[in-house]
């Protein structure tokens, strides 16, 4: 049975959810890992939805295995993180329907994250889009300067949120098209996730350990290049793009 299966009992009050599905630059995945480690977030729920790879994930120093897609939680900050160790197909309709149904039932506001493949000079730029009544959450985050498309699983989730009139935010950042990009992830946290959710989380470590993070994520980045439709990506469609 497709479901979000909780393994801990927590009291969360209309929490925010930061989506960290793998995509270009692995921006969302790096953010999910950083928030989980820095905030000491705990494993909260298994995402047992149709269409997801049936594999088990293990970590060093522990005997327990975990599902490849799972939710971490920080009860004090009313914050959830969607963490994935595998590519997720946008055609996995069971996953999209399962997750969005749970989001509605639990009164969750998702923050969807995608990278715009480019090679920015200086600090990467970020822009935001929204569904439902979530535009109010964007604050000083600018709107896109050109029309575009968010594809991959994040695009499917944003589309479903729009269809269901669910309040959600999409954060799109310029990112390296080939390699894991901690600098882009830092911009999303500092200018998007932190002000929207109200969390206090440092990001200096993302820069200090950028080489280590990039090396650790290279294998997953290669998987995403080989499975392009399963990679969360934003592209512009304007004539000057």
UniProtKB/TrEMBL annotation:
InterPro entries: Proteasome_assmbl_chaperone_2 (IPR019151), PSMG2_sf (IPR038389). Residues 221-241 are annotated as: Disordered. Residues 232-241 have a biased composition (Polar residues). Signal peptide: none annotated. It comes from Halorutilus salinus. This is PAC2 family protein. SUPFAM superfamilies: Cgl1923-like (SSF159659). The lineage of its organism: Archaea, Methanobacteriati, Methanobacteriota, Stenosarchaea group, Halobacteria.
């Amino acid at each position: 049975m497709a479901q979000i299966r909780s393994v801990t009992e927590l009291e969360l009050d209309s929490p925010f959810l930061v989506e960290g599905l793998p995509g270009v630059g692995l921006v969302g995945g790096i953010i999910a890992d950083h928030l989980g480690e820095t905030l000491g977030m705990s494993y909260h729920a298994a995402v047992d939805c149709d269409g997801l790879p049936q594999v088990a994930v293990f970590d060093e120093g522990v005997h327990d295995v975990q599902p490849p897609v799972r939710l971490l939680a920080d009860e004090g900050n009313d914050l959830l993180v969607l963490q994935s160790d595998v590519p997720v197909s946008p055609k996995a309709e069971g996953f999209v329907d399962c997750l969005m149904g749970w989001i509605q039932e639990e009164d969750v506001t998702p923050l969807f994250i995608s990278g715009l493949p480019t090679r920015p000079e200086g600090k990467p730029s970020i822009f935001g889009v929204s569904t439902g009544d979530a535009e109010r959450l964007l604050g000083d985050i600018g709107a896109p300067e050109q029309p575009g498309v968010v594809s991959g699983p994040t695009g499917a989730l944003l589309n479903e949120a729009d269809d269901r009139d669910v309040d959600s935010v999409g954060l799109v950042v310029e990112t390296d098209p080939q390699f894991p990009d901690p600098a882009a992830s830092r911009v999303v946290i500092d200018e998007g996730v932190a002000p929207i959710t109200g969390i206090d989380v440092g990001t200096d470590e993302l820069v200090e350990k950028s080489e280590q993070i990039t090396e650790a994520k290279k294998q997953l980045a290669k998987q995403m290049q080989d499975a392009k439709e399963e990679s969360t990506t934003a592209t512009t469609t304007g004539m000057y793009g």
